[in-house]
Each structure stands twice: as C-alpha cells, then as structure tokens.
C-alpha cells in the first residue's frame, strides 16, 4: 500500500524540490547537535575543572539517548504521523537547547544534552519513512542522497559553527543560536511540509517486538549494523583527536587554524548527493566497498601526514569515503528491510549513534595511550573490518 501511495503522489503535484530542501536542512541542523560539542570538549574541561575524558560525556550522553530515542520514535511516527513527530521534535529541541544555554552546571549540561539527544531522535528514522510515503519511486534515491548529504555535512557544519560562536562569544551562546535555528525549522516543517498517511494506528507493542526479532535474526542486518557502528565512531573519534594532533608539535596550530582545517573537509562531502549516480554506474555494494576502502585509506594516511598539505588532502579523502558510505548503507538497509523497513532503519540509526557515543571516548583513550599514528591507524582498521564484513552481505 505504501509503495502504491508513493507512486500515486505526483498527481497531488507536491513541490519535491522544496520538500527535499527542507529535509536536507532538518538533517543538517538536527545532526549538527551531535557534533557541536566536539570542539567544546576542552573549553568545558577548563571551565568546569574536569578531565577531557569526563568532558567528552557532553557528547556521549547526547549520542546515547539519541540512539535510544530512535527505538521509540520510529513506531510513534507510524501511529501519530511522520510530519507530526518531526514537528514535535523541532519544537522540543527549541526548548531544551535554549535551556542548555541558560545553565552553568556540568551535571545539568550532561543531563540536558541527553534529553536534547532523545528528542532529536524524532527526525532520522521518521524522515526516511516519510520519503517513501511522499515521493514517487524514481525520486527516492535523490531525496535519500540529499538527506545523507545533510547528515555528513553536519559533521563539519556543527563543529565549525560551534567553534566560531564559542571563540567569538562563549559556549552558552552556541546553544542559544541553535535554539533559534530549531524554532525556524519547526515553522518550516509545520507550515510547508505536507502530511503523509498514518500507517500504523492499530499496531501495538507486540507487533514491533515481533518485527524486531525478524530483523535481529537476519545476518544481513547484523553485518550492515556492524559497518554502521564504525561510521560515526571513526568520524567523531578522528575529529576529536585531530584538534590535539594539530595543536601539538610539529604543527602548533591555533584554534582558528584548526577550525579552517575542519572546514576544508566539507569538500569531500559533495559526493554524498551524487552517490545515487555512482550507484547506478557501479552498483550498490560496490559503491559501499569503494567508500569503505577510500575512508580507511584516507584515515591511515592522515596519521603519517608530515605536512599540512598531506593532512588536508587525506582528511578530504577520508570524508569523501564516509560521504559515499552513508547513503549506500541507508539504501541497503532500506532495500533489505522490505515490510520491516521503518524498524530496520530505526535500528540502523540506533547503531549509528552508538558509534557516535563511543567515538570521542575511544579517540581520547587512544590518544592518551598510544601515538597519534597508532590512534589513526586503529580507527582506520575498524573501517577495514567493515570492508571485509561487506563481503558477507548476501542480496
């Protein structure tokens, strides 16, 4: 029924370019909150007199509850409607993000970041199901590509915007600015996005438990989720370590110079909206494997970079690989999911941000235990494992 609805939607004459633009913006601004505290870990440690490992919980608490929220809001979107859940999330983000900007307690900072992450989970699993509800079949790949582009761009956008505001004002203003952006986003979603059909109004908890058992007993999903965990684990882990790497010998870069290095990584992200074209040429699995190989190679070479040109180029290569992996694994999980697509994507999003939760913790632990070269090499080896696991997936 959903497929038939998807193909019938063009008769209603939706402006898909506008809808895609709003979904891209939602993906960008929501997931930016995952990364916004990455450049703030050291300022938090200095202000609240805690270690950087403890300070990293401002990022990890968000990611933990973000992942848990996916398991709830996917089914709720079936019951109450995709647009309604997305709009609720944006309004809740407005309020809780503003609250973070008004406190000056580390404990409350960690608690509110967890709550912020939980309500932020309204978007990711809901958005993909919304695309399948609203878009005709031939437009779905492009829409998914732009949503993925928002996700991967947020990794740089969130860090850069947070760093710029913190250096210009202070960390509280970072969250005040984001609360204003969420309010604007809520208005866009509520006033512009069309509503989709409510597909699961009569489905209870037993239905979703049964669906979850089906998904978690299939090896293909397990392999996909293993790869998924490594994506944000290495991404956030790398950027957490990169700041310290560049601020020490032999580089001794200032915070502003490190900010520029982070920003340059956006160049590698242009591949994300183009992944649909790459898939048509190479195939879905081949595109996924190329992305994993490119990302692993870029991350390994980053660790042996002896000058800034090599470091900048290898960081772009790494980000380009990650930008190919994101939409590829999203489309693969959606394809394998079939009737369980919505819940399969909820588990995908959950595993993705489990990686985001442990990324900064592992990055800092490795940085304190071994050399920068070994740190980047260990992170790269996780992507190599993902590359090998991809050959176990049977379509």
Automatic annotation (TrEMBL):
<feature type="domain" description="Major facilitator superfamily (MFS) profile">
    <location>
        <begin position="13"/>
        <end position="395"/>
    </location>
</feature>
<feature type="transmembrane region" description="Helical">
    <location>
        <begin position="291"/>
        <end position="310"/>
    </location>
</feature>
<keyword id="KW-0812">Transmembrane</keyword>
<feature type="transmembrane region" description="Helical">
    <location>
        <begin position="56"/>
        <end position="73"/>
    </location>
</feature>
<keyword id="KW-1133">Transmembrane helix</keyword>
<dbReference type="GO" id="GO:0005886">
    <property type="term" value="C:plasma membrane"/>
</dbReference>
<feature type="transmembrane region" description="Helical">
    <location>
        <begin position="346"/>
        <end position="366"/>
    </location>
</feature>
<keyword id="KW-0813">Transport</keyword>
<dbReference type="InterPro" id="IPR020846">
    <property type="entry name" value="MFS_dom"/>
</dbReference>
<feature type="transmembrane region" description="Helical">
    <location>
        <begin position="140"/>
        <end position="161"/>
    </location>
</feature>
<feature type="transmembrane region" description="Helical">
    <location>
        <begin position="85"/>
        <end position="109"/>
    </location>
</feature>
<comment type="similarity">
    <text>Belongs to the major facilitator superfamily.</text>
</comment>
<keyword id="KW-1003">Cell membrane</keyword>
<feature type="transmembrane region" description="Helical">
    <location>
        <begin position="221"/>
        <end position="239"/>
    </location>
</feature>
<protein>
    <submittedName>
        <fullName>Predicted arabinose efflux permease, MFS family</fullName>
    </submittedName>
</protein>
<feature type="transmembrane region" description="Helical">
    <location>
        <begin position="115"/>
        <end position="133"/>
    </location>
</feature>
<dbReference type="InterPro" id="IPR036259">
    <property type="entry name" value="MFS_trans_sf"/>
</dbReference>
<dbReference type="Pfam" id="PF07690">
    <property type="entry name" value="MFS_1"/>
</dbReference>
<feature type="transmembrane region" description="Helical">
    <location>
        <begin position="12"/>
        <end position="36"/>
    </location>
</feature>
<feature type="transmembrane region" description="Helical">
    <location>
        <begin position="259"/>
        <end position="279"/>
    </location>
</feature>
<feature type="transmembrane region" description="Helical">
    <location>
        <begin position="372"/>
        <end position="393"/>
    </location>
</feature>
<dbReference type="GO" id="GO:0022857">
    <property type="term" value="F:transmembrane transporter activity"/>
</dbReference>
<feature type="transmembrane region" description="Helical">
    <location>
        <begin position="173"/>
        <end position="193"/>
    </location>
</feature>
<keyword id="KW-0472">Membrane</keyword>
<feature type="transmembrane region" description="Helical">
    <location>
        <begin position="316"/>
        <end position="334"/>
    </location>
</feature>
<dbReference type="InterPro" id="IPR011701">
    <property type="entry name" value="MFS"/>
</dbReference>
